[in-house]
Amino acid sequence: MAYGVGGVMSHLANFSLSGVLAVMFLAYVASFVGYTGWGYLLARHSASKVTPFIMLVPVIALVVGYVALKERLILWHYVGILTVLFGLGVHLLGGRWFDKKF
């Protein structure tokens, strides 16, 4: 059972030092780097220019998982990545393209 009281108790009974260190890394180091980078960008650019790039977070997570952890991506991952990139491209470049065409 993966969820529920039994699942939680099973995970608590079998935790390891590497698991605790991984959670601490994500909680402190990765959050610090992410928020520092976000603050750096917001200090130098307007929020309207920086905010659309937050859509890249799941794309970056999938790519890092694929490259660093050798995770297997399925068709829907690729469809999602392309959808996000297409949407971001339309948002960033669509106005210029639309102005030239019409």
From TrEMBL:
The keyword Transmembrane applies. It is a multi-pass membrane protein. The keyword Transmembrane applies. InterPro entries: AA-Vitamin_Transporters, EamA_dom, EmrE-like. SUPFAM superfamilies: Multidrug resistance efflux transporter EmrE. The chain crosses the membrane at residues 20-43, 50-69, 75-94. Keywords: Membrane, Transmembrane, Transmembrane helix. Its main location: membrane. It holds the Pfam family EamA. It is found in: Membrane. Residues 13-89 form the EamA domain. GO terms for cellular component: membrane. This is Probable amino-acid metabolite efflux pump.
